[in-house]
Write a structure and sequence with these properties.
Blueprint lengths: L2 H23 L4 H21 L2
Length: 52
């Protein structure tokens, strides 16, 4: 896994923690979950493209 793919994976996991914490404290927001799913798909695509 290259440095950029590793950073993107870390950002995705960190985003999941933030969105989950937001949902627990303030309430669920569909747009946040949608953004996280899009980030996850981009991360998976990056990992596949880089051959990780």
């Amino acid at each position: 896994m290259t440095g950029s793919a590793k950073a993107m994976a870390g950002l995705t996991v960190g985003g999941l923690v933030v969105v989950t914490a937001y949902s627990v404290t303030i309430g669920s927001d569909g747009w946040l979950w949608f953004a996280w799913v899009m980030l996850s798909l981009l991360t998976i695509g990056t990992l596949v493209a880089r051959g990780a």
